[in-house]
Every structure is written in structure tokens, then in C-alpha cells.
Write a structure and sequence with these properties.
This protein has about 675 residues and is α/β, with parallel strands linked by helices. The protein contains 22 helices and 29 strands. The protein folds into 4 domains: about 325 residues, Rossmann fold, CATH 3.40.50; about 120 residues, Luciferase, domain 3 (Roll); about 120 residues, ANL, C-terminal domain (GMP Synthetase, Chain A, domain 3, 2-Layer Sandwich); about 80 residues, ACP-like (Non-ribosomal Peptide Synthetase Peptidyl Carrier Protein, Chain A). Strand 12, helix 12 and strand 13 form a beta-alpha-beta unit. The two termini are about 45 Å apart.
Length: about 675
Amino acid sequence: MTSAPVTLMDLLDRRAASSTGKYHFLKDGRDVTATIGYAALRTHAQAVANQLRHQVGEGCRALLLYPPGLDVLPAFFGCMNAGIIAVPVPPPDGVRLKHSLPRLQGIVADAEADVILTTAGLQQDLEGRLSEAMPQVHWIATDILEAADAPDFKRPDITSESLAYLQYTSGSTSAPRGVMLSHGNVLANLAYLQEGFACDAGSVCVTWMPYFHDYGLVEGLLQPMFSGADCYVLSPLTLLKRPIRWLEAMDRFGGTHTHAPNFAYELCLERVTAEQRETLDLSRWRVAGNGAEPVRAETLRRFTEAFGPQGFQAETFYPAYGMAEATLFVTARAHSQSPRASRLSAEALELNHIVLANDTAPESTTRTVVSCGVPRPGTDLRIVDPATGRTCAPDTVGELWISSPSVGLGYWRRPEETEATFRARLTDSPDAGHFLRTGDLGFLKDGELHITGRLKDLIVVAGVNHYPQDLEWTVLETCPDLRREHCAAFSVERNAEERLVILAEAGKRAKDWEAAFGIIRQAVARSHGLAAAEILILERGQIRKTSSGKVQRRACRQAYLDDELKCVARWSREQASSAQTDRLTGPELRDWLSRALGRMLSLAPEAIDRQAPFAELGLGSRSAVALVAALEDHLGGATLDPTLLWQHPTIAALADFLSGAEMKPAQVAANTVTRL
């Protein structure tokens, strides 16, 4: 019997020697434009390792800064082959450079990174722009290294306990911290994933999730290698631009496994038309993982109803729970069970008690919580009172504590936080060993984990707990013209009073917001017994989110307190206000862009400054990609680079570029340089 791999390099060696599985990159989500097998990947990784040895010493940290595609894979394994600690990070957002650059600088400083690995194209584009902020960092373009650069390859002395990479947390509740993950941690989690989602060499995996997020790296890229499966990789921008391409890839390539946060399934419901659905065959789809943010029972139901005629089955959904501190995977539904949810008494839940609601109970008095399934064998999962450290009684909400071989080594160079988070002990069972405190609240029912919220996100009014995600769901369900999954509820203290504040982004259509304010207030009061103190309808792109789509409620709260939010309309107990800007005129393309942008931001076209950068108007990365897609349709099927707005960042500049160039559709794509 073949022994299990001890390190990730052992895993790659094994696949290079025996597996026919490959990685494929789908440009625009359609055509395969790059393919790499495991043997070629290993050779390229060895070339990267040799180049690293010439630049930095063993044990140094290397930032992985890559565009969507396959180039990050040789860099990731090249680091390990050189004894270098990989640090996957997102390329700075060209639309919001002033927002994304500080986070990147913070990671460079925290990790004390010595080198940045990237592509030649990105190096040319970014090195000059970032050199002043990060002058001490070397740059290496790994995509231009040849296999001939690897003849003198020598592997360092690495064991299962050796540090493999730093996974910086997405920062949903705090500043990003580097989770230290060993080779053993990652391999243990990959084994959990393989069993939990029934993946094998015959599976066909499809992923669009970014490599710098734990979900995208571990499940999206490493799990196919562990199972020896084929993997088709799309750009995250493709999903945001045209979500139909994700589903088309599942159809065209016979995809069996794919994973995504809840918002991606909502995006398909919102943007995939009935005509597009009819072209799909999803009958080979076996696993649709749903994790990284609250799983909505309504989303599972609506997606199954919408795509059921195309062969998608309810049993395909695998609600799951995981986190970077545990490498990724903690629980998923059992293979023998369909996705399940519990309909609970809202009043009892607010008091941390689990009481099943009566079948006849009104919706406004209940909360539906989806089961995230069962832990893998070898995982010790407890529900604990966060104040006392004692195991909670049955049918009680508490903090989730876990112990497993895939729990990381701690936070990079943060011994006090590591001790508090990774070394917790139960006061009623001190001999049970160390536990990871997740900061997530939930309960166990029939052995299955149900997540109810974040410990630090709780809204406590008059001694009663209120879960912000429940309030947010009420708001979004009450007012369908709000943007789905873009709502944040939190409390602030004013005049010795806890005040409920609700932020929500406007949808695509104009709205009588004065009437909406009244509807939202009534729904929140009726369903939760709370009076909203202030409601802000925001421009698109204002709700702070992590790279995986989680709402950053603390960041939203801080932006509110710092008066940094751009509002479409605002209601408070004290006042209501609105803003107008001067009317501008222009040629046809500028007019169209103003109208399209106005619909996205819920602003009148004349209220949009055509000389203002898209980022300052509140257009985030997702919305920018959606605007490019709409522009393609307006130009009669042109193929535009999804980052076009980053190069021509105002309506005036974009209109001048497109109309002045007088390009045919194919020429537009050929002359657009990718910037990230």
C-alpha cells in the first residue's frame, strides 16, 4: 500500500509520476488558453526554486502576486521547493489603489517579505507604482523562466511540521493576520475535503475563486491535485462579468465539483436569463459547495427551482463551514443526508436558546438556519460559552471551538493572539487539550453544525441578542430594489443609547426611498422588535466586503462613524437629506455611459460627473466588470477586457478612447492591456 505524502512536494511528485490530470485556464470562461500537467508543473516549480535561491535565503517570505490563471501554481510550489514561505496575496485593485495598497503594504510589513513573485506583465505594470511604497522588495517574473533553468535543483530538508505558507485572513472582523499552515495541516485538510465532497480522479473540478483566498487555494487548486482530477480555472472577473460562463463551463466540460460562497449562486439567479438557462445541461453536477459566508435556505431553494429543469438536484448542494485558521474545511453535510435547515423561534434564539418553531408560526417570528453538516473524523467540535469556557448545554447557542490536525500553527509573529485563539482550554474539561476559538456562534442539532453569527457582530439592545445577518435578511427581503447580499446592520452608542444603524446598497432601478424607509422600519420593528435609528441607502460598492464576499460589519461601522460612506438617500430620527449635482451634457457614448452608470448607482444620469474617476463615484470592482459587460452588449457584441475601466477611469476618458479609436469589436480586446 502506497504511503500518504508527507509534504506538498511529495504530493506533486506523486502526481507528476502517475496522474493524467491537468489544470486548464478558460479565458473569458470559454476557451482553454493554457494547460499544464503535473510533470510540467513540477519542472517549472524547480526552475522557480533555483531562481529564488539566487535572490533570497531559505526561510524568507515571498509574496505571490498574480493575475487570474495558472502562473501562480509553479510559484507556489517553487517556494516550497526552495524552503521559502509562500504568501498568496491579491494584486492591488487598480480601481481602488489607495484602498488596496495599504493592505498589501501591511502584509509586506507583517510578513517581512523579501521578494514578490509575479508575471512579467504585472511586474512591468506594478513595480514602478509600488517601488516607492515597498523599496526593499525584490521582484521575480516566474512565467518567463525556462525548464532549462532547473538542472541543478536541490530540495531542502522539509517535514510535515515545516511551515508551508502564510494564509492572510480576509479581515471580516479585524486587521488581516497571517495564519501559519504546515504541510501536515494542509494535507490533513485535503484528505478531509476529498472524503467530505467525494472527489476522486474521475471528478472534473471547476473553480473561479481567487488563489489568495483559502477557499480558492485549498479547495479550488490543491484539492484537484490531491484527488488527481482535472481542474478548469476561470477568472473571478468572469463570474462577476457574466456568471453564465461558470455554469456553461460546468456543462461544456462535464463539471462534477465546484464551490462558491452563497453570493455567487444569488448572482446566477439575478443575472442568468431564462433563455440562457434553457441551453444548459447540469445533470453531471454532483457537488455544489456553499460556504465562506452565511448559507441562505432561500438561496438553495430558489437555485434548485430555477435550474432543476436543467438537471440540477437539491442533493447537489453541500452547505459547509470552514476558516483559514483551520486551513479551510471543518464541516459539510453528510453524503447520506440532503441539505437541511432548522426553523427556529426568533425570540428564543435571541436568548441563545434553540426552540423549534411551530409549523403555523408566522415567518416574522421565526429564523431559518441552514445546517453546515458534520465534522470529519478526527475533528473535535464543541459549543462553548465564550464567557466561561464551559461546554454549553444542549439546545444552546455558544462559540464554536475546534481541534483537528488541520488547525494551523498560530498567527505569524503574534504570540499573544496565538495563545488566546489557538490554545484555548475548556474550563470543565481541561484535559481535552487545546482548541481553536473560531469567534463564530452556533449550535449542534442531531450532530450537525448550525452557524448563527459572529461573536463580535452581535447587536445587544436592552439585554437581548440580535443577529445582524437576520436583520439584514429582513431588510433585503422587504425591499427587493436593494442590492442582494449588500447590507450591513450594526449598533452604535449615542447619548447612552444603543442605536441600530442599517446600511444597504441601492439596486439597479430608481426607487422612492422615502417610502422604502418606512417599509424597512416597519419590517425591522415587526420581525425583531427593534427601532432603527438610521438607515442609509448607499451607492454601489460602499458596503465593505472581504475577498470571499463576507460583509465586513466592523469596517462598515467604522466607515459610517468616519462619515466616509456615499449615500443615495438617508433617513434618521433627526433628519433626511439628499444630494444633487450639476447637469452635464456630451456625445452619444457619454450619454449612454451616464445612463448605464446611473442605473447601477441608482443616480440620475445628470447627477454623474463625467470627469470623476469611477472609483470616486462608488463603482467597485464587481460593478465595473458588470458595466463592461453591458458596454459589450451596447457595442453589438464587442469583446472588451474586464479591466477596461481601470485604464480609462472616467466616463469622458472611456468614451474618448472607444469613439476616438474607432475600433471593431475584436480590435478593442486586442488593444486593451490588462491591469490589476
